[in-house]
Design brief:
alpha+beta, Dna Ligase, domain 1, D-amino Acid Aminotransferase, Chain A, domain 1, 3 domains, nine-stranded antiparallel sheet, four-stranded parallel sheet, binds adenosine monophosphate
Amino acid sequence: MSTRRVIEPGRTIGVLGGGQLGRMMALAGRNMGYRFVTLDPTPDSPCGQVADLQIKAPYHDVEAAKQLAAQSDVITYEFENVDAEVTALLMRDSYVPQGSQLLYTTQHRLREKRAIEAAGVQVAPYVEIVSAEQLRTEVERFGTPCVLKTAMGGYDGKGQWVIRTLAEVDEAFATLSRARTDLVLEKFIAFERELSVIAARNPSGEVVTFPVAENIHVNNILHASIVPARISCEIAERAEQMAQKIAAALGVIGLLAVEMFLTADGELFVNELAPRPHNSGHYTMDACRTSQFEQHVRAICDLPLGSPALLTPVVMVNLLGQHVAPTLAWSQTRDASLDGAGLTAKLHLYGKQEAKAQRKMGHINLLCADVEYALSWIKQSNIWEDQHDA
Ligand code: AMP
C-alpha cells in the first residue's frame, strides 16, 4: 500500500521505537496537529510519555505490529534495525512511505557502502572479511591501524575493533565473529574532523539539507556537535552535495543522516548512514528555522519541506547519565542564565527514569555568538570533566 499520499494534520503517525528520537518527533508533530502512537517494550518510554498511546511490546512482536498498523495512518521508525518480517507486515497493513529498501540497505554496512559508491560518493577503502587468514592478508595490505566492524547490529562503537598490530588479528576475528554477521575491514582514516549532514526528502522529490555539523566523539559516543562546522565554505558545500546525491540515489523519504570523515588534504569519505533523525541534528531544535523532527514529519506526510536555515551559531552537548546530577544542580543556580556571557542554554531531557552511566539522557543546545566561546564554557563548567580526560 506504499503509494504517495499527503497525510493531513489530525491523522495518526505510528512510531516504531519509543526512545528519545521518537519523543522529539512526537513533540514536533503534535505542534503540527498530528496524533502519535508508539510501539516499545519499555513501560512509560520517552516517546510513550508524549504520545496518545504506547503499545507495550517487543519490536519484533508481529501481533503488536498489526495493532500499530491498525491505529496509524502513516508509520515511521526511530531506529534502523527493524525486523524484516515486521516491516513487510507494516507495509501490507498500513502506509510506510520510507519503504523497506532503505532499511535493508542501511542495516548492513557492506550493502550500505556499495549503495554509497553506486551514488558516486567516496567511502573509506574496505573489504569483506570471511576468514582469519584473509583478515591477516588484508591487514598487511591496508597497514595498521585499520578497523574491523560487524556488518550488522553495531552502534556507538560496539561491534568494532581497531587493529593496531598483526598480533591482534586472531582475537579480533574470533571476537567479532561471535556476532554471527558479515565482517568488513576498513582502512583507518586519519581524519582532521568528523562531520555530518542531515538530508530530508519528500515523496515529491524535494531535497533539503541542514547545515553541516562538526562532531566530537568521546569513547565512540557523540559528545558535542558544532555548527557552523569549522571548515571552509567549499568543503561544506561539497559535504551537503554528497548528502543530497545519496538521498536522491537511495530514493530516501524522510531524513537521512550522513556521517563523514574530513582529512587534512580536504578529502571527504562517508562513514555511515542513518535513515532517521540523528543525534548530531539535535542542534536544529533551537538553532534552525525548522527542526530535523518537524522536517521528518513534513517529509513522511508529503508536506512542503521547511527552511533549514541556521538562525544562530550553536554547540549541542550531550548529557549522559553521569552528567545529569551536575546539570540539574547547575540549572538551578543563577549562573544557569549565563547572563552576559553571550550564551543561551536550552536544556532538553528525555524523561528516562534511570541515569545509567553513558546512557543518553538529554542534551543542551548552547546558542552563541561564537562557537569557541560555547566550547570554552563546556570545558570550564564542571559537568563534562570525564569527557575531557577521556
Ligand atoms: P561507526 O560506528 O562506524 O560510526 O564508528 C564509530 C567511530 O569510530 C567513528 O565516529 C570514528 O570516530 C571511529 N571510526 C570508525 N571507522 C573509522 C575509520 N575507518 N577510520 C577512522 N576512524 C573510524
